[in-house]
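Lab notebook, page 48
Experiment: co-folding of the full assembly
Goal: obtain a model of how the components sit together before planning crosslinking
Operator: M.T.
Materials (sequences as entered):
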Amino acid sequence: MPSSYLPVDTNHNSDENLVLGIDTGGTYTDGVLLEYESRRVLASHKSLTTKRDFSIGIEAVIEGIHIEDPAAIRMVSISTTLATNAIAEGKGKRVALLLIGYDPELIASFKMENRFATPNYYYFGGGHDLYGREKEPLDLPAILARVNEIKNQVDALAVSSYFSPLNPEHENRAYEAISRVCDLPIVLGHQLSTKLGSVERATTAALNASLLAVLQDFVIAVRRAMERRQIDAPLMVVRGDGTLMSDEFAARTPVETIHSGPAASAMGGRFLSRLGDMLIVDVGGTTTDLALIQAGQVAVSEEGATVSDYKTAVKAANLLSIALGGDSHIALSRENELTIGPERVVPLAYLAWQYPHVQNRLKILSRRARNQAGPDWLEYWFLLREPKNEALIKGDKEKKLVEFLRDGPQPVPDILKHLNLFHLNQISTAELIRQEVVGKAGLTPTDLIHIDGGYTPWDVESAAYALNSFSRHLFRETDDLCRQIWSHITETIIQAIITFLTGKKVDRGDTIGHWFFQNSIYAIHPHIETGFRLRQPIIGIGAPAGIFLQEVAKIFKTELVLPAHHEVANAVGAIAGSVMVTEELLVYPHMSREGLDVIGYYVQASDERLEFEMLDEALAYARTLSRDRALGAAIRSGADNPQVVVTELTDGLDTYRIQAKAVGNPRLMR
Amino acid sequence: MMQFVRVDTQRAYELIWDRITTLDLAPGSSINELDLAAELELSLTSVEEALKLLVHDDLVVVSPRHGLYVADINLPDLAQLSEMRLALESLCARQAAERATPDDIMVLEALRQEQTTISPEDSRRLFDVDHKFHQAIAQAAHNKYMARTLDQFFGLSLRLWYLVLPHLDFLPAAVEKHLDLVEAIKAGDADRAEAIMRDHVQSFYDKVQEILAAEGA
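Observation: model returned without errors.
Model output:
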């Protein structure tokens, strides 16, 4: 007789690793719940990004995603446009930059004065030379005097000393002294970069200082939102190259979150398509962003990313962003030319879906005589939310506007009539819009997609009425006008792709370049056929990607891949990266006073320096030290069994840069 | 240690520390973590973790029966703190005279310089600079254990001083002593530095004790 066996439970799956990815984009904040190993998307949610306070949009997304068991979430990872936006809009905190050993005349001669990312920069004596030797004593009394003077007018300090990566002594001494006379946070150049380029390092230090409070507030808000949903998991933030860092590291080094959003989208495209080389085109609500993936990694700017014209030392993703997206405003310029964007508005289909009376008004409009139905009637203003405090509404006209809009969305001509104005320029609406009290709606590609039947979550009829009015005003058939609009979009994107990959712009003159470009898209010439071919496939991300990119891929004679869940690929990308930490050390010769003999070799880490007699001893030690530090930091950041690769580059003249990169998947097991 | 503390815990710690030191959270008052978290707009976890750190700092007390409350201030505590600070700060001044580097002296002079720009009525600012001055001397002694210990006592003493802040009309005079102290340290005169400091701290505490006793603390 066989003995009885206990049945094996084959359905129990405790190996599931649930992770939550969030992307706070320019227009929308997306969230996805994924099973990490299988890459299955279990749930997703989209909500509007709330620029005035990002945490609101994030909380909305976390609330909106269906999570059965919050305790089962093993990691939350978030990408953010906060840093890039804060820099572009000048919303970082006020910073004083202390430059030690910089030559004011040299800076002026290269016209670098406005490159420091802050108007408050000061020069002091000190600094080191190419061999790490002090070139001038540090003028500490002057530094302390200046700090005393300005400490109540700024929120943070940044210190950058000439050649500090080779010898950070002056930055360290300045830090010690300054921290005893004032309580402001202090950022040191040598801790952010080993690049010797002094202007980039100073700019990066200043930017980092200005972003500290911004990112800290952000991380705190996300943690709060997580707790409200009872999610207790490690929080990672996406770096500008698509890799992940711990929230604590991100709060300390916020410059590394520059380009975090687009990098996450690129990683999402890669993760979902499972390909290794591709061009990522992320069609968002406001912008379309381009990135390149090579051998599974986001291509970065080795010389350092440029953000809003500031050259930094941060190795963030190499990107191109154009102001063209699903919600770009389709309108007429003053010269009666068709324009698409750069402004983003709420699609009319959405507005009508929220406010049914708008559909009625658009229907009536489509039947009116042409001269009473100009494109201005297609621009609606509406109240997004009640202003929190009355102080936001500065003047009487602005107050009247808000009151008028309380009754519901109104088209521009009615607003002008009600307020007795000729043009909206006559009232100051910028603040109301920035604070997201008032919003604008208009005709957008999203509306056209509704009519096409491609994507119809909102009111199709209103979109159709709006398009009808617009076409009639231009004496065109709707089909014809649609074709022109899509054609314009296709051409703009193709141009952007070419500029992104080649660095060249398409000119408008009577040149071969311009002819070639037009002929390749429209096959005009009867005898000469021209064309482009993109060697990699195009991965389309974002809800409108399919429609925006179909023609583009055809013209580039390449495949358009729309991975499953491409509408939320950016949020998927937030968890797709590996945890990565880089440690860099410099090895360079210890020169004698006269500069003729090599006495030994220095190994300079950011906080310690050792000397060796022989070069190979120094290099061996540097390799070991950088590897150990990278490994330790990666583990602390949440990497699982990180692997380290150590590379050695020489700057020439016996100076070496030893870089250890520790990479691992995020540690998900409890 | 703060490096390994979570960002939100650090923020909670700083905010609560501030409130306790400025007596916003009154000595002896009970602490409700939920209310505090809601008020500070932080997660409950971060507030709980921050409170644990504050218990370690002796600013918050755990009672098995009554829960968490802000540590009380009383005369016996003041006496014990005074003993410690007197002994340690005098030693500090001596060692600063022996070991101060040129950078250390520059910091002390910068603080003295700032002091001269503060009006005698601005107790709050005078008090802040005085505090920094004492911390700078501790750093100039180049003994990290002493600096760390004194830091903890500074933290506890700050509350006492906020209590007597309105009465600190003697502060300008006390702060004058700093000039002599800096000169002694610069000259490397350890005996003189120690004596000035001892006198400075002692008379300060005597005054504070007087005021507290008068208040019936």
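Interpretation: The first strand of chain A starts at residue 18 and ends at 24.
Next step: discuss with group before ordering constructs.
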